[in-house]
Design brief:
Layout: H1 2-18, E1 30-36, E2 43-53, E3 56-63, H2 71-78, E4 81-86, E5 89-97, H3 100-113, H4 116-122, E6 126-134
Antiparallel strand pairs: 1-2, 1-4, 2-3, 3-6, 4-5, 5-6
Length: 138
């Protein structure tokens, strides 16, 4: 897909080069999430939209159903320790899947940031919402 092969690498490069000041998503908040590959053990970095909530970051993926699972989701489930870059700041996080109550709370805000989440989910997609908690106070 063009997103994984073209858009994500370009967004990653722009983000790192500008410290997050320039983004392909306009004003939508973006972070870089670095996970450890569950099979390879190699670091993988993806740009993701996010929101802030109670000192944590909330990220989401909605698999439209016609694609395989997103690797970053599988990597976080296997190894929940990751690294996040927000702007020029980089820090360690521990990920956990959001509870049903948290999904109900954050879903409206997530779909406001990226309406395609709602469209994919309503078309039978599967959503994964993660809470990324910093491992030490920032």
């Amino acid at each position: 897909m063009a997103i994984g092969r073209v858009v994500s690498p370009l967004q990653r490069w722009l983000y790192r080069t500008t410290g997050g000041r320039i983004s392909l998503t306009g004003r939508a908040p973006v972070l870089l999430l670095t996970t450890t590959g569950r099979r390879t053990g190699l670091e993988r970095t993806v740009p993701l939209l996010y929101l802030r909530a109670s000192g944590c970051l909330v990220v989401c993926n909605v698999n439209p159903g016609f694609e395989g699972p997103n690797p970053w989701v599988l990597n976080l489930r296997a190894r929940p320790r990751a690294t996040v870059q927000v702007g020029r700041e980089t820090f360690a996080v521990t990920a956990r899947e959001a509870t049903a109550e948290e999904i109900d709370r954050y879903w409206p805000r997530l779909t406001q940031i990226w309406p395609a989440y709602r469209a994919f989910f309503e078309a039978g997609g599967k959503r994964s919402v993660f809470i990324l908690a910093p491992t030490q106070p920032r």
